[in-house]
Amino acid sequence: MKLSLGLTSLLPILCTAIVHDNDQQAITGQQHAEQYHSNTKLSDVIAASPLLCLHRAICEIESVTDDEFAVGELLVSILEAHNFTVKTQSVPPPNSNNSTKGRFNVYAYPDVSKYSSLGASSIEGEHVTTKPKVLLSSHIDTVPPHIPYSLSLPKPESKSSRKDILISGRGTVDDKACVAVQLQTALDLLSSGGVSPSDVALLFVVGEEKRGDGMRAFSDSKLYKATNSGYKAILFGEPTEGKLAAGHKGIEMLTLKARGKAAHSGYPWLGRSANSMILPALTVLDALGDIPEAEGGLPRSDKYGKSTVNVGYMQGGVAGNVVPEYATADITFRLAGGTVSEVREIVTHAVRKVDPEGLLELEFSQGYGPVPLDADVTGFDTITVNYGTDVPNIEVKEGVKRYLYGPGSILVAHGKDEGLTVGDMEEALAGYKRLVKHALEL
Ligand SMILES: *[C@@H]1O[C@H](CO)[C@@H](O)[C@H](O)[C@H]1NC(C)=O
Ligand SMILES: *[C@@H]1O[C@H](CO)[C@@H](O)[C@H](O)[C@H]1NC(C)=O
Ligand SMILES: *[C@@H]1O[C@H](CO)[C@@H](O)[C@H](O)[C@H]1NC(C)=O
Ligand SMILES: [Zn+2]
To answer: Which Gene3D superfamilies is this protein grouped with (predicted)?
Structure first.
């Protein structure tokens, strides 16, 4: 593809600021806040860094799940401008009616012929370029609502330095920090000759926050099957506070339904309350993470602690003076151990104890148990995390390492205070470079 799609208009937003020499001086060293009091100065800091400009450009484009077209287009332009070959994979949203522009995954690898002068070791033709050893992947969708990108200094400003500058807004952490850091990692390692262009590829997927449909489409694609035979490692980007995740909890979701019989609330014996049917089951399930396993509770483990339960959605009845005919609830279990089928058995057993007639309907989602990850790289702190990722949505051959790493904290990721610091971003860039080099030596 040529750089036709408005690249000339896109590039300026990446790095616009005209930084004068003495300003440059002010924003590079270990400086204090006087230099950053006005917004212009804060944005100069961003403009002076290719990584931070890239991050800002991606974050300024709204990309709530199913609306990832525009941010995908921007990434294609940036990657092509940096001499990557880009393959897009259309992932239509469910129930799409063609009125919205189609969303797509972005898979990209360095165009070997254009990078060959920069330290490529073994270039034998097109087939080499399509068999990378390391894949860096993160997601380009965000949760709603979109929150504009902004810059600020933590209080007290006088104690803040460049690395403390707070970058806030939707996606600044989850997951556009990783998109920017991974892309910049590849660019830096390529230009320094730190990796051979045929060794790395990038994958930016849609839909992680809702269904994982982007990653699953990639996993099922001919492109993946034709290119993955050389993989040594996949580096998944999610906020891990700059630590290497040794694993994450599993997840299983349940929709519970009760069908009763409507009646006048003055004559409840003429009906059957769906709310009364479902409530005991919800009470039991709500506590299922706290009950010892021996007493029918959910699995625990040393690695992840307790499984947890969230009764996240309930709906029942139509009005206060009508015996409810129908009730439903959605419950999410975060699994610290066991398999999905074991958990389904535990949950079903707990429900049937308070529903001996078997009237409640249970619909389980296609979940997964805890996901172990590789954390065998020296120099990184490790953690385990409680959230789900795209890791289980891609089939990986035996022996391929899976790393999960990224800047910022999941604790702010989906909230209104989503944000991270310049220091977080830059540490993660250094971390990713070390991870890629480690993976290439495996
Ligand atoms: C892309 O490749 C062309 C041709 O080899 C080269 O002139 C240009 O500088 C490269 N651009 C980047 C950003 O590497
Ligand atoms: C969407 O567009 C495609 C191709 O143009 C067409 O085959 C399909 O029927 C359309 N779907 C709807 C729901 O209009
Ligand atoms: C099609 O999608 C658009 C945008 O999501 C929406 O506004 C519109 O109501 C939809 N139309 C139909 C017929 O579903
Ligand atoms: Zn995420």
So the answer is: 3.30.70.360, Zn peptidases
